[in-house]
Amino acid sequence: MRSARKRAGAAASIAVLALALTAACSSGDGATAEETGGDAGIPDANRVGAMEDFAAGTEFVATEPVEFGLLYRDHPNYPLNEDWLFFSEMKDKHNVTFDITSAPLSDWDQKKSLIISSGDAPEFIPVTYKGQETQFVSGGAILPLSDYVEYMPNFQQKIEEWGLQDYLDSLEQADGKYYMLPGLYESPQPQYSIAVRKDLWDAAGITEDPETWDDFRDALEKLKAANPGVWPMSDRWSTTNNSPLGATLNIAAPNFDTIAGWGFGQGLWFDEDEEKFVYAPTTDGYKELVEYFASLVADGLLDPESLTQDDDTAIQKFGSGQSLAISGNTQEITTYRKTFTDAGNTAADVKLIRVPAGPAGDYVASGSRIASGFMLSSAAKDSPHFLALLQWIDWLYYSDEGIEFAQWGVEGTTYTKDGDTRTLAADVDWNGLNPAGTKKLNADFGFSNGVFMFANGTTDELIGSMQTETTRAFVESMADKEELPLAPTAPLDEMQQEQVTLWQSALNDSVLQNTAAFILGTRPLSEWDAWMTELKGLNVDQYVETYNQALAAKG
């Protein structure tokens, strides 16, 4: 690795949040506590079902039955079933039912955007990532949640105790408010890396995780020599979010001083030395990243179909031995192993390698302690049960008890507990934790469901309680990586946002298309400077300057 390189901050987001825990705003209607019969901001008319003594650590039980409107992301691995135990427990023990509007995972973000833009969104909109709410702010379709966090004591407690204020400050909108709440991690929890056939890697003499991406290339070359006719690596997730090599470029990019793939966002990279934003694809780091993966394709180490094939095809290649490495995460490892066992291959061993270091260092991206979260539609504040909705969200997603329920289910039914040790019921499995179980915690009961558990268990203890030894080993191997610093915020006003949205669409299309073309070799790297000129024609300079002006105006 190079010993000297200009160090840049993490990817900047134009999105979200500045949390003021000690001075949360009211809803702005000017009402006093005496006029509303309670705290200023939420009138009595909107407190149906709410608890008067709700506090951090208090179990939420609505004082009378309430029904919350829910926009539900329907995952094919656990299709929505309104007879799930999760729903019956909500109804019987918490007085909560749901009016569900369902949208499939395959086009979740598109459907979510259309529903919100149409003004027909249900009250509660989960599975929202940082930055996705920005497009709805100016139109007033969603609520500024900073006006209401005073009613969410569990959320506030974790922000303070876990020292997460800077993460939230990095998400501020131009009006100084934030419009989504994220899932929270007590400490960084890496999930994605490269999954490898450890048995065949060992047989090729690769017994240690590659320390750098150059070492990774050497490992692929050894695999190719030892396994002729087999792809050393054939990747997946390239059709997810229309981002070729999206997962792999995302995990590699921080160690090349850039952002790419799923982590590309607005394409802004903060140069700490110059104290300004630059467009990531115009940096040396981005070019070096593309050159690296282009060389893997050119040398027959990375299957060129990796940039276009669907997940099933990629997994089939890996499971049948046609490839020996693939993008993965701490949950998909179980899927890969099952593919082998279902085929009768009991010798196959799969593991996640530590993400290699790169020419810029040994980093993970910033923002690794916040996860997807939620928005509330603007209509929610007019609901009779608005305060009850806030309390329910605060309990389920941010209290230890609520997270345990969402993750493990019902004690005595889906699991047992002895002190701090939880054990799945004999007939229940989740992610290979109890392979003998014939029922799935998510598919058969509705727990460990990404809709109802933003951060997959926010406390270290709860996360660890569901980790296999393999997952725990991977997480521990990543513990010494340095997290890149958070970039400053550059909130845009409404006119600026409208303008950059137009520029961003064309720029993103060019980045996706040309990144793939350079990696595949369908466009030679000798034309890189020509592409830089094309980006200028797409207003990249004006795009970046708008953010730098907003940064300067913020002071």
Tell me what you see in this structure.
This protein has 555 residues and is α+β, with helices and mostly antiparallel strands. It is 35% helix and 14% strand. It has 19 helices and 17 strands. The chain has helices spanning 33-36, 85-94, 108-117, 134-137, 153-161, 165-169, 198-203, 213-226, 246-252, 284-298, 311-319, 332-342, 386-398, 400-408, 460-465, 469-477, 494-520, 528-537, 540-554; strands at residues 8-11, 66-74, 96-104, 124-128, 181-184, 192-197, 268-271, 276-279, 325-329, 350-352, 363-364, 370-376, 415-418, 421-424, 428-429, 439-440, 482-483. Strands 1-7-8 form a 3-stranded antiparallel sheet. Helix 2 (85-94) links the parallel strand 2 (66-74) and strand 3 (96-104). Helix 10 packs parallel to helix 17 (494-520), helix 11 (311-319) packs across helix 12 (332-342) and helix 13 packs across helix 14. It is globular, with a radius of gyration of 24 Å. Mean pLDDT is 90; it is low at 1-40.
Layout: helices, strands, pairs:
Elements: E1 8-11, H1 33-36, E2 66-74, H2 85-94, E3 96-104, H3 108-117, E4 124-128, H4 134-137, H5 153-161, H6 165-169, E5 181-184, E6 192-197, H7 198-203, H8 213-226, H9 246-252, E7 268-271, E8 276-279, H10 284-298, H11 311-319, E9 325-329, H12 332-342, E10 350-352, E11 363-364, E12 370-376, H13 386-398, H14 400-408, E13 415-418, E14 421-424, E15 428-429, E16 439-440, H15 460-465, H16 469-477, E17 482-483, H17 494-520, H18 528-537, H19 540-554
Parallel strand pairs: 2-3, 11-17, 15-16
Antiparallel strand pairs: 1-7, 4-12, 5-12, 6-9, 6-10, 7-8, 13-14
Helix pairs in contact: 5-13, 10-17, 11-12, 13-14
